[in-house]
Amino acid sequence: MNIVIFGAGGRAGRQAVAEAHRRGHRVTAVVRDPARHSDLTGARLVAGDVTDAQSVERVAAGHDAAVSAAVDLSVPAHGFFTASSRALSTGLAKADVGRLVVVGLASILPGASGAALMDEPGYPDEYRSFFLAHAAGLDELRAGGLDWAYVAPAGDFDHDGTRTGRYRVADHGDPASRISYADFAIALLDEVDAPRHHRATVSVRER
User: Fold this and answer.
1) pTM above threshold 0.85
2) Is the dihedral of CA 182, 186, 191, 193 positive or negative?
3) Strands 44-47 and 26-31: what pairing?
């Protein structure tokens, strides 16, 4: 397949590029400044702006599916996540790319109680504005017409974890859960290769 990966220079994005390349896909890695990511191998590196629909359409043309691991911590989070979701919905549709897999955030998905994990007792509140920004971006995806999957770790990433080749879909969010970026990338690419979740959220954990 031809897969375009937005935010390919970040930790999740790099692992998605590596996993897609491992599976034999042709990968276009989209970053803001290609000169900063010359070490990114296994992909064609291009400049693009995930918050601009015309830019998304341009870099996505000719691809079968898209992955977005994009984040920009230098700008207000609410504006970034809503703008990127709108741009992806519009730009990918115009480029005739029907499938989008997005790296999500566990905090806004259901916890054991059924409420959003961020609303459960004792959950850290320090980054709530960032959580709400992710939620607003998810709402924009729901408003669009693409076939998307919003995939989040059930808890958080194990930043030093290595690839085991395994993961499982979680029943609900769990703050104690950790998964390596490499194993999380397997879940992302599984949703590209053999989509199981359509216009839906899913959390994954270590197995």
Assistant:
1) yes
2) positive
3) parallel
Q: Are 170 and 204 in contact (CB under 8 A)?
A: yes
Residue 153 belongs to what H/E stretch? strand 147-153
What sections of 44-173 are H helices per DSSP?
53-60, 77-94, 128-143
For the stretch 69-87, pLDDT in tens is: 999 999 999 999 999 999 9
Q: Give tens-digit pLDDT for 130-178.
A: 999 999 999 999 999 999 999 999 999 999 999 999 999 999 999 999 9
Neighbouring C-alpha atoms within 13 Å toward the C-beta of 192 = 32
Spatial contact of 52 and 79, defined as CB atoms under 8 Å apart = no
Measure the CA–CA gap between 188 and 47, rounded to whole angstroms: 22
Say if CB 206 and CB 178 are below 8 A apart. Answer: yes
Cα–Cα distance, 28 to 44 (Å, whole number):
5
Torsion over CA: 206, 159, 80, 20 (sign)? negative
User: Which tokens go with 164?
Assistant: 């085991």
> Residues 6 or more apart from 163 whose CB is under 8 A from it?
180, 182, 183, 186
Contacts 24+ apart (CB under 8 A), 161-168: 164/206, 164/207, 166/206, 166/207, 167/204, 167/205, 167/206, 167/207, 168/204, 168/205, 168/206, 168/207
Q: Which of 119, 146, 139, 132 is nearest to 65 (CA)?
A: 146
